[in-house]
Amino acid sequence: MINFIIHKLKRFAWFKRLNAKVTYELLAKKIPAKDWHFMNYGYAPNSQETQLDLPADTMQRYPLQMYHYLGAKVSMEGKQVLEVGSGRGGGARHLATYFKPASYVGLDLAQSAVDLANSLHALPNLKFIQGSAEAIPLPDSSVDIVVNVESCHAYGSVSKFLSEVKRVLKPGGHLLMVDFRNQANVENMETLQQQLQDTGMKMLEEENIGPNVIQSIEEEDNSKQERIRALVPEKWQKLFAEFAGVVGSKFYLTLKDGSRKYYRFVLQKPV
């Protein structure tokens, strides 16, 4: 009954905003940060993508790769980068370190996530601030690149978010985004594609990366299950496993049968 009520309430923008804020405030407070820097489902690269050389003991290799191969789509060196929905900050740290932007700002609705990320990831060119994706607290035309990873599905208004992205981007700036949509919902992948088209920004790349995410979930499953058992109280482990998208979860099964789509986008604001 509770799940049914929540499913119905998610049709309302106010509830989507509240649900996202409460969920990620709690996760930032309750899950030990040193063992969980990423919250995305991960990415296994295509054969034509240059393999990323990571230490054998790298934790959450696949979620890190989600950021890496998205960030590699455009040059970040010397640029002003904004990540909207930066979460625990692991992806921001990797991109700020590896691709050497002049500055990287991570924006998140959850203050606890911002505080956690600032405490974990101290770099000269990196900082985290609290704010809404639907009212980005930055000036017009102040950002070269906006990064958005598995985040906008939770926003009250995706159209407002995209309008804000276009506002803060400099002419010629880029939006790099990955996200999923359940095809059974009114707001499915076709809806997102139309919303992106309606921005007037140029679509440079659009790719279905569902198979890459499925492979990631499968290859990371053992280590993810171990972390859940180690970090999450036993009474919440089943619920958290569903949230984390382990093999056999609803997220995994709908991605596997094609009823959930997962895409990667690269857009450019007109000059």
Automatic annotation (TrEMBL):
Classification via CDD domains: AdoMet_MTases
GO biological process: methylation
Keywords: Methyltransferase, Transferase
InterPro entries: Diverse_substrate_MTase, Methyltransf_11, SAM-dependent_MTases_sf
Coiled-coil ranges (or none): none
GO MF, one example: S-adenosylmethionine-dependent methyltransferase activity
Domain Methyltransferase type per the UniProt entry, residue ranges: 82-176
Similarity comment: family membership: Belongs to the methyltransferase superfamily.
Protein name: Class I SAM-dependent methyltransferase
